[in-house]
Amino acid sequence: MKKKLLLAVNGVVVFVALLCVWQAVVWVLHIPPYILPPAIIVGRTIVTRFPELWTSFWISAEAAAAGLLGSIVGGLFIALIFARLPWLRRMLFPYTILLQTVPIVAIAPLILMWAGQGLFAVALVTFIICLAPIIANATQGLISIDTNLLQLFLMHNASQGQILRKLRLPHSLPYLFVGIRISSGIAVIGAITGELFAGSTRVGQGGLGYSILYAMAQLQTDYLFALVFAATILGFSFFFIVMFFEWLFLHKWHESAHSEGSES
Amino acid sequence: MSSIPEILFRDVAKRFRATDPPVLQGIDLTIERGEFVTILGPSGCGKSTMLKLVAGLEPITSGQIYVNGLEPKNARRLISFVFQEATLLPWRTVERNVALALELEARSREDALQTTSRLLELVGLTNVAQSYPRALSGGQKMRVSIARALATKPRLLLMDEPFAALDEINRDRMNEEILRLREAGNWTVLFVTHSVAEAIFLSSRVVILSPHPGRIAHTISVDLRYPRTTTLRETVEFDTLVNQASRLLREAHRA
């Protein structure tokens, strides 16, 4: 408990120190505010333009969440097929890696051209970059079953459905969460990238990506910083929400939850 | 006693691949109902493979195996298999691990819970019924594994070096426990081990395999009365049998 408090204090102190350095640099070097606005101005912008910022935050959050949830459902579905049909897995698995290596910035315009300009299109961009880690990890979890465990189920004449429900799916859960954790980080990147191309998804308002473009065009550097701050918070929130669910499902029985606890 | 043997091996051979040398060859063995037979041999002589064949988990290359007159695959509801590792499901509590086999065989939940709590009491694990396997010691895990195997009331128990990972004190204790449990259950056991003392202590008959390919080299009849307790280990008869078995095992290994 004391250790955790110390860690939190440490975090706050470093954060405040960084703000002070930032403020001092701007003062000492006389940097114009459209290049680097002082920390205090950024803080004030966050407060005064909070309603817009909050709206953009939620628009991006919606798109990222929709894309991530879609990729969890879709990725698990594909992983189930891969686990069931090894020949199909061997044939198609290399292409899931392709999904990951194609730069999203390059294909986002194409997707938006095909899928239109709305929330759906942005979520689709997110979905595509989140998919590969989920497929790879969930497939691994579904197929890396101990032979003895499988034979145990066979000895009791278990059906394929029982093997799936009572053995493969629970066994794949820790693996699936590794995939979701990776994807939760890139989901926010995907949504913002999508919005850079999609423009506004609502009349007169857009997500963080759209607002970043807008603020840049207007040389509102202070608001740009506020948006970066919001995007970071969004990324963190996704990560912590996933961590929470991982803890919720795994902490009772899985070794990873146990060892993380004893490490800190 | 029925005239049908519990397990019958008739000139059984096993190769894993057609091009590989056989793992087992010319195995003829008859095991009657109620016997406790141990297969003893060095690592890699095909002991475990014999069990997998009886369970129908591996196909036989040539010859026949009958379990109570049935093909191995059709006899599975008579059999429980205890693996070398405890093979528990880490996401299930001890209680629900024991209930697994009953669930798979679609017993009612009430029936399953009743059987489970009786078995946990039998193996002395009532106090950890709600724990997850992670929290258990090696010996406790193996007890759970045995309780799970007994849940379906098998008449034949196949045990593949179940106590190999335990220290000697725990192993001796588990040996006594398995004999105590058998008094109530009256199952036939086919047991695999590479420990001579364990084989003699448990069995009514010990079958010694020689390796490459696995063949039956010797059979020792262990005429020590059940119930056997730990004091048996200090008797001269026990020592003599262990020495005899060790000598035969060495010969079989050399040949």
Structural class of chain B, by secondary structure, is alpha/beta
* Number of individual domains of chain B: 1
Mean pLDDT of chain A: 88
**In percent, how much strand structure appears in the residues of chain A?**
under 5%
Assembly type? heterodimer
Residue fraction in strands of chain B? 15-25%
SSE series of chain A: HHHHHHHHHHH
Secondary-structure arrangement, i.e. CATH architecture of chain B: 3-Layer(aba) Sandwich
Number of strands of chain A: 0
Put simply, the count of helices of chain A is 11
How confident is the prediction overall: mean pLDDT of chain B?
87
How far is it from the N-terminal to the C-terminal residue of chain B, by CA? 38 Å
Number of domains of chain A: 2
CATH topology of the largest domain in chain A: MetI-like fold
Shape of chain A: globular
Indicate the structural class of chain A: mainly alpha
Query: Could you give a short account of the major beta sheet of chain A?
Result: none
Uncertain runs of chain A:
259-264
What features would you describe in this structure?
- The complex is a heterodimer of chains A (about 260) and B (about 260).
- By secondary structure, chain A is mostly helical.
- In chain A, about 85% of the residues lie in helices and about 0% in strands.
- Chain A has helices at about 1-30, 40-50, 50-85, 85-100, 105-115, 120-145, 145-155, 160-200, 210-215, 220-250, 255-264.
- In chain A, helix 3 (about 50-85) runs antiparallel to helix 4, helix 3 (about 50-85) runs antiparallel to helix 8 (about 160-200) and helix 4 (about 85-100) crosses helix 6.
- The longest helix of chain A is centred in the last third of the chain and has 39 residues, at about 160-200.
- In chain B, about 45% of the residues are buried.
- In chain B, the strands form two sheets. Chain B has a six-stranded mixed sheet with strand order 5-6-7-3-8-9, sandwiched between helices.
- In chain B, strand 8 and strand 9 form a beta hairpin.
- Chain B is α/β, with parallel strands linked by helices.
- Chain B starts with 6 loop residues before the first strand and ends with a helix.
- Chain B has one domain (about 5-85, about 155-255): Rossmann fold.
- The chains are: A mainly alpha (about 260), B alpha/beta (about 260).
